[in-house]
Inverse folding.
DNA sequence: GCAAATTGGAATAAAAAATTCCAATTCCCG
DNA sequence: CGGGAATTGGAATTTTTTATTCCAATTTGC
């Protein structure tokens, strides 16, 4: 149990000096860690011996041990998921609160995305990606960046990839797909008209259609041969495609790694890619 | 920067007593926090004054301040959530192992990225972004997607944003920047020639230069007015810009949220954006 | 080779932590 | 309600810890 929490719980039943010292520590843990027992006494208008006695009443040998416990309590607040601040980012939130809420939202989106997809669906998608002659990536808005990121990774493996940010070109590309090909379509809402039309066309042309979309029922999911789900809570982070994007990236990154594991020469391809790019890097500082 | 990391980096060039004391602290940070300077001297077979001098050579007023810094470094240290498999993805890894290692690597990259940047640097970047007349985003490869993602978000707020994936166009755009403008340059290596040249030009033209780059010393960091750092371990995830990209996104997402909090009409802009896009969404299934 | 700089322990001084002493206040029981 | 016991908490004192000074030995640089 965090000492800060323990002090809070006991505050009401403490004697006056103890209450004042305890309150200061709860309100200012960072500052307390920098103060000597005498300086803390000055800050609280109490005596130096009261500070030491306060520590001992809490079960510590002295002030130094109390300091250590406060330091550990602070460390746990940041790290333990249970102690992390969850919730909607709000107008009055300070820096640390925003940071923790953002981190927590990202973590949750990725974790939930993993748990709503079972291994057999991932394996099916992997199998289809592995076997596809050509892979066409489709998505608009934030999803288009995920599609592009995934297309770069697939191209790095030497795969035959079609991707263009212009939805008309995407549509034209889809009209060339056949039964040996695959469409990988991303849309969190599942209602983007361009992505939907492209998926419908690919499906008509007997290409395999993998859809990455949100959990809600939506028209894009209905076109899918294989449907992978993402979970994001955009309301938490001001509705700007942050958690939905992170959730999609979690899936595409996982598929990429699994493909790498499946392709014997994958590491060679990746290494070749790095070597090729290195001529575009400045030489090391001497 | 973590004091533990700093001590590690300097160990080789330290004199014998300092090296011994430094090594003990790196190996036993928990224990060190419980020891007086005299007790630490006994543990290392050195003198008590050497312990204090060691602290002072590192830039602290004394041993107590060093202790505080070690305590903070420990708090920010990465710790895998309980039970999670952590480590390098290897050839024989199964699905679940790969999944956990990937997830853990993402968490580590994001958390470490947060801990290596202090609040005052983030606030400086925020201030500069908030005040800039025009914001130019630069980056190539994976960084170009992060740049684009951030450009979309900034444009959603009604900001005057310059972004193009073509590095020649980026360069031409940089030639129009002035003292009221800002360049936001992303490169994990800090050695991409295009990004570097663009940053140098922006700097010459007196624009504010914010650089988002890795922790290692690099030419791009030297051009920066404000430097934000990212931590990613690409070796863990087959070296394909996964964790480096996640680290960069963590920073750009944070800056975006902080900007939203600073801009009174931000929510209106975001809402207007959603309304505008809704005409490109299929109607709900009936 | 020599002077200057660095290293680092012993001794000393200063600061911080802990304990003791004791007066004032509160609590509890008869 | 009164008196004794227990608690509170600051001042004074003691002990421990931290920081600085002194100085000899070693290393470095010219």
């Amino acid at each position: 149990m965090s000492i800060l929490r323990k002090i809070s719980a006991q505050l009401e039943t403490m004697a006056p000096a103890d209450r004042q010292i305890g309150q200061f520590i709860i309100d200012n843990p960072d500052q307390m860690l920098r103060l000597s027992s005498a300086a803390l006494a000055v800050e609280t208008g109490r005596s130096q011996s009261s500070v030491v006695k306060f520590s001992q009443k809490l079960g510590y040998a002295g002030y130094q041990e109390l300091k250590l416990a406060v330091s550990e309590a602070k460390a746990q607040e940041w790290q333990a998921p249970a102690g992390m601040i969850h919730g909607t980012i709000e107008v009055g939130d300070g820096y640390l609160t925003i940071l923790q809420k953002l981190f927590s939202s990202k973590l949750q989106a990725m974790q939930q995305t993993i748990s709503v997809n079972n291994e057999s669906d991932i394996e099916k998608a992997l199998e289809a990606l592995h076997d596809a002659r050509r892979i066409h990536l489709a998505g608009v808005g934030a999803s288009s960046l995920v599609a592009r990121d995934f297309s770069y990774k697939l191209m790095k493996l030497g795969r035959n990839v079609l991707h263009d940010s212009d939805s008309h070109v995407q549509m034209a590309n889809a009209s060339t797909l056949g039964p040996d090909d695959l469409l990988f379509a991303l849309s969190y809402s599942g209602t983007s008209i361009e992505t939907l039309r492209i998926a419908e066309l690919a499906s008509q042309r007997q290409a395999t259609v993998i859809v990455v979309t949100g959990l809600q029922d939506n028209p894009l999911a209905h076109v899918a041969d294989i449907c992978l789900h993402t979970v994001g809570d955009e309301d938490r982070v001001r509705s700007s495609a942050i958690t939905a994007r992170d959730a999609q990236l979690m899936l595409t990154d996982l598929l990429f790694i699994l493909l790498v594991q499946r392709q014997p020469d994958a590491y060679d391809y990746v290494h070749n890619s790095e070597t090729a790019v290195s001529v575009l890097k400045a030489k090391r500082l001497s």
Chain B touches chain A through 72 residues (CB under 8 Å).
